[in-house]
Predict the 3D structure of the following.
Amino acid sequence: MNSAAGKDTMHQNPPRTPPAPRTVTVAYAGGDERRGPLTMGQANMIRCILRDDPEHINNHDVWAIPPGAGLDAVLDALRTLALRHEGLRTTFPHAPGTAPVEQVVAAGGTFTVTVLDHTEHPEERARYAESVARGARVGRFALDREFPLRISLLTHRGVPVHAALASSHAVTDGSALAVLREEFLALLAGEELPAPAPFAPLDLAAEEASPAGKRKSDASLRYWERIIRTEPQEMFAEPRAAGADGRARQLTLRSRRGARALAGAARRTGNPEATVLLAAWCALVAHRAGQDSCVTAVPTSNRFHPRTARSVNTLSQDALLCLDVRVPSFDTLVRTTWGAALNAYKHSRFDSVRLWEMIDRVTGERGSHFARDVVFNDVSVLPATLLSAAPQDSVSAELDLVWGPFQALPTRVLAFTYETAPQLHISLWADPALFAPQEAEGFLTGLVQLLEAAADRDVPLDSLTGLTGVGPAERGPDWTRVDGCWASPRAVRDALSEAVGGLPVHVEADRDAGVAARAEAGTGTDGDAAGGSGAGPGPYPGSSPGLTAYIARGATGLTPAGAHAALMAAVPAHGGTGVIAPRRYVLVESPPAEAGPSGAWHRLPIIEEGTGRSRQVRHER
């Protein structure tokens, strides 16, 4: 194995004398003018665009221009793309301070290309072009007026070499950029393009607004709610998660060994390579996280339908895959993966506003904070693949690992699979608080080792540590499973005390889950369970005991509902640190005089107690 850990292979290498930029305006005309509502995918991404760091939301790509293509040919190809795809002629009008609700497709217009002409070749030209494209991601796109591609044309003494561009995620996702790259290169090669994908964004919006489309969205919300109510809220709830800073370096695996192993495992099990790879990924992620199931987002799901496979549109809506890994062997897991993936894909078109309203409501009832910790994007099976713009330095390597640049990471672990043959090519961004450089490398090599073993035999899942070298998360004795989630009573105590203004708090795990179950079902002393789609806040079948919080409220007038609301408002700030709300809040006047065993809190007179989510019980004093 070759490894470049600690070395940034994506340094910019700018020219010694940066060229003065020249702006070229390109006009286009002759398209159809249309307007209508947003698609669900557009609304989802626009919500993120208006809220999040543009450097993290915007996309980028680098197109190598073949020898012999002149400046005019390049500009003509770009003009053709703008006319060919309605998405590139789309803007989203809206008043300041509001979010767009419609899209407008122009019949014609203009866009600009920034030409950077170099008198000398920059070192490592492809990496330099990559840095120019990344630089263009900075700054939010003006949705109501800006052309959705920021294009820089890098030339050498007037000869085009690379097109480096950033794109608005409201119009293109990674696969759409790949489609544009393929068509751009075909135009420069003099090829005649087939008719564009007939399913334009406005056509998709009309389908989604139909009665059948609304039923599909409703079914997706019900599917997501079941997972949000019952599965781990954070895959990586562990002590190390508290040190995250939201940035991670790209680690790229290229391995012929991995490709051979994946093909062998697929043949032996009789399953598609994509299914085997997804099963291996989920098995290793859940093993490393110490979870009974793997909850992972799969954003490419909406690209698998023939009508949308080559659409120049943003189809970025998550499929939420939940795969139970409590099975004895890898082969058993593979057999369940395909059905679970299809179910996730089937439920990946939804109204994102309604989705987040549901998540906020359900997590408030459950007392948790849903974290999109794991993202797995297998774009290798799509018709157009957004391969990394970095040079293919190691195309013949048996197993090679190369480190790239840091970038904002809105999740704990993100992986892109670009190809599976003739090499397994995966880029991984893993939170450095959870994965030191050698651990991130070990995770990818462990994935290859799992595939190699699976190519030869059925692998017991309890052997993953010895087989792959990847061990489960280390949690101290304070940590416990609460409602299927890992939690630290100590962290809950600290977060709750801070949320209620520093009042003394004691938190402990319930000894009898049945008592909590009866209480929250309304058969104990705590009143009715909270509503919400017919399900209360917990516990759930097979869940472990919950937490009980004792709060010395003094003269504050705090109630269980107030304590729960205060903690839930603070939970996002404590995400990943093992904080989940207690099932019961017990309010007393003062803390026990003696420190030490928790029994001292049990003996105090109770003022009020409850879940904080429903009718409370007051005790006569």
The CA atoms of residues 71 and 160 lie 6 Å apart. The first strand starts at residue 2 and ends at 3.
